[in-house]
C-alpha cells in the first residue's frame, strides 16, 4: 500500500489514478464521506424553508415595531426626511410606511397591507400593521413548537372569520341623520393626530362634506376637494360653497369680481398655431413679417369675438403642455372684451370643475356656444388669499361637490391637517357603506381575545392551540395603547380582561384620565368597518408570509 501511494504521487495519468484508488481500502472511506456530505447537504436543504420563513417574519416584525410607538392618541410622531431635504412630521401609519425605504420583500408586504387598509377603511393604518406583527410573533412561536405552517394558516383564517362574527354581534347601528354620532366618530379619528386640538372644528366639516356628496350608499371622495393655502391658522379652515380655484385672474379687466357670470371651460389654446416640431418658417422681408402678425391678430380676434358672442364673461383655460395656452395678445383682446381669464387649470381638476359648475369642457371653437356655458352669481378674487371663489352656481347638474379650504401657518401643519381630514372623511364614508359603530380604546380587541379564548376551549387538536395564540396576539392593541400613554401595560390589560369577563364589553383604556372606563360614555367610538378590515387584512397577510418557503430571484 505504501508502494501504491508512492506510485500514485508520481503518476500523472488521471485514469491510472482512478484505477489504483478503486482497489484501495481508503476509497471506501472517501465514498462514505462523500455520501455523508450529500446527506448533510440534503438535510440543510430541508432546513432552508424554515430559515426563509424566519427571515421573512423578522423583517416584517421590524417594520411593525418601527411604527408601533405611533399608535393611539398618545402615540409618538415620526420625522421623515426625504432625499431632497423635505421634512414630514406625522403619526399616520400609511404615510410613514409609504415614505420608508424598505428593501426586504416580506417587509414590503406590510407596506402594501397599510395601503390596502387606507383604501378599504381610510383609518386604522397603524393598527393593522401592529396586529400583523403580533400575529407573526404568535405564529413563529407555534412553528417552534413543531406545528405545520399550513395548519397555522388555516386556523388563523377560521379565527379571523370568528372575529368578524363576534364584531358584527357587538356593533351598534347608527342613523345617518344623527350628525352628533357621526361627529363623535370623526373626532375619535382626529384625536390620534397632530391636529387633535382642532378636532371640534374639523370633525363637523368632515361630516357635512361627506353627507353633501353621498349618493344613497355611495361616496366618491374625489368630489371633495381640499385646498391648502399658507397664512392664517387652522381655526380659519372652512367649507366653501361653490368652487374654489387656487389661481388668480390672469388679466386686468377693470375689476376683481364679475357678477352674473357666464363661465366657459376650454381645452384649446387661445394663441396662434405653430408649425410641427421639425418644421420652420423662414421670413425674408418685413412685409411677410407684417402679414404674419396681422394674421395672428385676426386669428385671435376671431376667437375672442366668438366667445363674446356666446355671452361668456369668465373663461377657464386648461393647462397646456405643448405650447402656451394663452399669449399676451390674447390677454389684451380678452381684457378689452371684458372677459375675465383664469389660466392653467390642471388637467386632473377638469372633472371636478365640470361637476361643480354643471358644464362640459369645450374642446374646439366650433363647440363654444351659449348652452356649453354655466351660470354663477359671483366670481371674485379673494384679496390677499391668492385664490378665486365662484359662488351662487345655478343649474340642475351643478353643486355636486364640496370645497374645503385649509389655512395654516406653515407647510408641515397644512400637510398634516390634510392627511388628518382625509382620515376623518374616510371614517364617515365607512359609516355610509356600513352604518355600524363599536367602542374604541382597545375594547373590541380585548373582547375578541376573551371570546376566542373561550371558543378555543371547545375545540380539540391543533386548532385550539392556534385560536389561543390568535386571541393572545390581539391583546397587542390595548397593550400598546397603555404603553404609549405611559400607563403600566400589564396591570391595565389584566384589569381590562377582568372587566370584560364580568360582561362590560364596551370598557377600554381612557388615555386622557389614565384609567379603564366605558368608552361609549367617553364618546370614543369607531366604525365597525375599520376594525373588521384591520383584522381580516392582517390575518390574510400573515397567512401569505407563512406560506412562503423560498425566495427566488429572477434573471431580469
TrEMBL record:
MF terms (GO), sorted A to Z: ATP binding; ATP hydrolysis activity; ATP-dependent protein folding chaperone; unfolded protein binding
UniProt biased composition (Basic and acidic residues): 41-50
Pfam families (UniProt xref): Cpn60_TCP1
Ranges where the record places region Disordered: 1-54
Localization per Swiss-Prot or TrEMBL: Cytoplasm
Regions annotated as coiled coil: none
Major subcellular location class: cytoplasm
A GO-annotated cellular component: cytoplasm
Superkingdom, natural source: Eukaryota
Keyword entries, A-Z: ATP-binding, Chaperone, Cytoplasm, Nucleotide-binding
Transmembrane segments: none
Feature: compositional bias, Polar residues: 1-22, 31-40
Classification via PANTHER family: CHAPERONIN
Family as reported in the entry's similarity comment: Belongs to the TCP-1 chaperonin family.
Protein name per its UniProtKB record: T-complex protein 1 subunit delta
Organism: Medioppia subpectinata
Lineage: Eukaryota, Metazoa, Ecdysozoa, Arthropoda, Chelicerata
Amino acid at each position: 500500500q505504501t508502494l501504491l501511494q508512492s506510485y500514485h504521487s508520481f503518476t500523472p495519468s488521471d485514469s491510472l489514478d482512478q484505477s489504483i484508488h478503486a482497489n484501495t481500502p481508503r476509497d471506501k472511506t472517501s465514498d462514505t464521506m462523500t455520501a455523508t456530505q450529500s446527506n448533510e447537504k440534503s438535510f440543510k436543504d430541508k432546513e432552508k424553508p424554515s430559515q426563509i420563513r424566519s427571515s421573512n417574519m423578522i423583517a416584517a416584525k421590524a417594520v411593525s415595531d418601527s411604527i408601533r410607538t405611533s399608535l393611539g392618541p398618545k402615540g409618538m410622531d415620526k420625522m421623515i426626511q426625504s432625499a431632497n431635504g423635505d421634512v414630514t412630521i406625522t403619526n399616520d401609519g400609511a404615510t410613514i410606511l409609504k415614505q420608508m425605504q424598505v428593501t426586504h420583500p416580506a417587509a414590503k408586504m406590510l407596506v402594501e397591507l397599510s395601503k390596502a387598509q387606507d383604501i378599504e377603511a381610510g383609518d386604522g393604518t397603524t393598527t393593522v400593521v401592529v396586529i400583523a406583527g403580533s400575529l407573526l410573533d404568535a405564529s413563529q412561536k407555534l412553528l417552534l413548537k413543531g406545528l405545520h405552517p399550513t395548519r397555522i394558516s388555516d386556523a388563523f383564517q377560521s379565527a379571523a372569520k370568528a372575529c368578524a362574527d363576534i364584531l358584527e354581534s357587538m356593533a351598534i347601528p347608527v342613523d345617518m341623520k344623527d350628525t352628533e354620532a357621526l361627529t363623535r366618530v370623526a373626532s375619535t379619528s382626529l384625536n390620534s393626530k397632530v391636529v387633535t386640538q382642532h378636532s371640534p372644528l374639523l370633525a363637523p366639516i368632515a361630516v357635512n362634506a361627506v353627507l353633501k356628496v353621498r349618493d344613497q350608499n355611495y361616496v366618491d371622495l374625489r368630489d371633495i376637494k381640499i385646498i391648502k393655502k399658507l397664512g392664517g391658522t387652522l381655526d380659519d379652515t372652512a367649507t366653501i360653497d361653490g368652487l374654489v380655484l387656487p389661481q388668480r385672474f390672469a388679466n386686468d379687466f377693470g375689476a376683481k369680481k364679475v357678477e352674473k357670470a357666464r363661465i366657459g371651460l376650454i381645452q384649446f389654446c387661445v394663441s396662434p398655431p405653430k408649425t410641427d416640431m421639425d418644421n420652420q418658417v423662414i421670413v425674408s422681408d418685413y412685409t411677410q413679417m407684417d402679414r404674419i402678425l396681422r394674421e395672428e391678430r385676426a386669428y385671435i380676434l376671431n376667437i375672442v369675438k366668438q366667445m363674446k358672442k356666446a355671452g361668456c364673461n369668465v373663461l377657464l383655460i386648461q393647462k397646456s403642455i405643448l405650447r402656451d395656452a394663452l399669449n399676451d395678445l390674447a390677454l389684451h383682446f380678452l381684457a378689452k372684451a371684458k372677459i375675465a381669464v383664469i389660466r392653467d387649470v390642471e388637467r386632473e381638476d377638469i372633472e371636478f370643475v365640470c361637476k361643480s359648475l354643471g358644464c362640459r369642457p369645450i374642446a374646439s371653437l366650433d363647440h363654444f356656444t351659449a348652452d356649453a356655458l354655466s351660470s354663477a352669481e359671483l366670481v371674485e378674487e379673494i384679496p390677499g388669499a391668492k385664490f378665486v371663489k365662484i359662488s351662487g352656481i345655478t343649474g340642475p347638474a351643478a353643486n355636486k361637490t364640496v370645497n374645503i379650504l385649509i389655512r395654516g401657518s406653515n407647510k408641515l401643519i397644512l400637510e398634516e391637517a390634510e392627511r388628518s381630514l382625509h382620515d376623518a372623511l374616510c371614517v364617515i364614508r365607512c359609516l355610509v357603506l356600513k352604518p355600524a359603530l363599536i367602542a374604541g380604546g382597545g375594547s373590541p380587541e380585548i373582547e375578541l381575545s376573551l371570546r376566542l379564548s373561550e371558543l378555543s376551549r371547545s375545540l380539540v387538536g391543533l386548532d385550539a392551540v392556534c385560536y389561543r395564540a390568535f386571541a393572545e396576539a390581539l391583546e397587542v392593541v390595548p397593550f400598546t395603547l397603555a404603553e404609549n400613554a405611559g400607563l403600566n401595560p400589564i396591570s391595565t390589560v389584566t384589569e381590562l380582561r377582568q372587566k370584560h369577563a364580568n360582561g362590560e364589553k364596551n370598557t377600554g383604556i381612557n388615555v386622557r384620565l389614565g384609567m379603564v372606563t366605558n368608552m361609549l360614555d367617553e364618546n370614543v367610538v369607531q366604525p365597525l368597518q375599520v376594525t373588521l378590515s384591520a383584522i381580516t387584512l392582517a390575518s390574510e397577510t400573515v397567512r401569505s408570509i407563512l406560506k412562503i418557503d423560498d425566495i427566488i430571484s429572477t434573471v431580469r
